[in-house]
Amino acid sequence: MYYYIFDIKKCKKRSQVESVKSYLGALGISGEFTYPTAACSVEELVDLALAREYSTIVGIGDDEIANIIAGKLAGRKEAMGFIPLEITPALAKLFGVESWKEACEALRFRKISQIRLGKTANNKAFLTYAYLGIKSPIEITLELKGYIVQAKVKNFAICNFHPGIQKMEEDYLDIMFTSVSNEGGSILNKFSSILGNKQKENGPDFSLLRGRSLRIFTKTPLPLICGNTVIAKTPQFFESSDEYLRIITAKKIDLK
Amino acid sequence: MENNVDTIIGVNVLIKGNLNNKNSVEINGSVEGEVRSDDHIDVGQTAKISGPVTAKTIVISGQVKGIVEATERLEINPTGVIIGDINAKSLIIQQGATFIGKSIMPSDNVKIPSSNKEDKKEVTTEAAAIKVEKEEKKELDEKDKVDDKEIIEDKFGFFSKK
Q1: Interface residues on B facing A, Cβ-Cβ cutoff 8 A
Q2: Which among A114, A100, A27, A10 has a CA at the least distance from the CA of A61?
Q3: Using CA atoms, how far apart are residues A100 and A87, in angstroms rounded to an integer?
Q4: Which range among A145-149, A152-156, A163-167 shows the weakest confidence by mean pLDDT?
Q5: In this structure, are strands A173-180 and A147-159 parallel, antiparallel, or unpaired?
Q6: Which of A83, A91, A157, A206 could form a disulfide bond with A60, CB atoms 3.0-4.6 angstroms apart?
Q7: B5 neighbors A169 (Cβ within 8 angstroms)
Q8: CA distance A163 to B43
Q9: pLDDT at A186 over 60
Q10: Residue B131: what pLDDT?
Q11: Residue B161 pLDDT > 70
């Protein structure tokens, strides 16, 4: 019933693999354990699991494996589970778990929630958010339904699910960025940033837009990163998926 | 950031086109086009909008060049500038605010005379004014003619007193 794909490269210690395995066994939800290799990718392992008619496919690792499995299972009846080895705040809030042990317990209770995914033109999916790899402020142009946006930004993210953003429409992506002046920052601002003075959270330079789909353009191609993985490069098209993904979350989570 | 603001446009951001939202909108940047919300629009001090602004409630602290229409309440703060017509059920203009345009405040209790009558009145007044002007012109012309005659008569010196 349970098909586990263990991203062994993300394990800090070899003993962690055995710890997770034995804990799952103790909970009575042991299943088939597989490991992606150079010869057999995560995508291929998911295809194999679907061919063998497993009803639950569980990724063990980080954002990378979660996004790959999510992309493969969107719109299907099979449920996705996730055991984080290094949990990020966004994934922690989405699945309602703080540690791998909590994630194992959530799997046992098997509460199914539904969520849409963020998708790129090259069919890469993301559960949480993708951010632009920016070293210094750059000019971007966004094309959303009915209008275009021009700004010089110092950070930029496209969110399908973000712990700090209240989602207004389930089929909309949230776009957030912090803009800077085209004329460059004032001397005072430069000094305050050098001295480490943090700018007021969500100040007047913070922007939040919502859209079913969007295009992003930059003068030079920039990477869009999810977790630690580059999922796309600019210019790029993003949209919220039409299909839902069935995920196993903690009891306290109320998605849909 | 857990609040009900649907869209926030930060400073140094330029939007070209029509921004249409169900929930509230906060604008601190520039917009060239229409801004519409079914709820609330907050135009911040640094905001510059060239186009119509429509919402249930609107607070303006920045600049708007265009028609501002609030189905419930419009407030213009001291730093607010509106160059354009206003249509609001309830209007608050604070001291220091700038407003150049016409204001219409539709109300259920107050009966507003039909615009046709007003037009007619204005037309009648204008017509009367034109009539008076014409009569005055006529009188002046006649006077001028008499004066000219006198000048001519004086020119030849037939009736000049010696």
Answers
A1: 1-23, 28-29, 33, 44, 46
A2: A10
A3: 8
A4: A163-167
A5: antiparallel
A6: A83
A7: no
A8: 27
A9: no
A10: 54
A11: no
Q: Tell me which residue has tokens 């099979």.
A: A78
* Contact assignment for B12 to A179 by CB distance below 8 Å: yes
**In chain A, pLDDT over 70 holds for what percent of residues?**
91
With CB atoms and an 8 Å threshold, state whether A147 touches B16: yes
Q: Is the pLDDT of residue B144 over 80?
A: no
Assess: ipTM above 0.90: no
Residue B92: helix, strand or coil by DSSP? strand
Test the B interface: residue of A183, A206, A212 with most B CBs within 10 Å: A206
Asked if B35 contacts B41 with a C-beta cutoff of 8 angstroms, the reply is yes
Q: Alpha helix locations (H) across chain B? A: 115-156
Determine contact, residues A154/A134, Cβ cutoff 8 Å.
yes
Which of A147, A177, A204 is opposite residue B46, by nearest beta carbon? A204
Kindly list the residues from chain A whose CB atom is less than 8 angstroms away from the CB atom of residue B27. Answer: none
Residue position matching structure tokens 């069919």: A123
Express each pLDDT in B16-58 by its tens digit.
999 998 889 999 999 999 999 999 999 999 999 999 999 999 9
Q: Residues 6 or more apart from A152 whose CB is under 8 A from it?
A: A137, A138, A139, A140, A179, A180, A181, A182, B12
Contact call for B15 and A148, based on CB within 8 A = yes
A253 in B contact zone (CB under 8 Å) = no
pLDDT digits (tens, 9 = 90+) for A19-77: 899 999 999 998 999 999 989 999 999 999 999 999 999 999 888 899 999 999 999 99
* Kind and range of the H or E run holding A129: strand A129-132
Q: Which residue of B has its CA nearest to A206?
A: B10
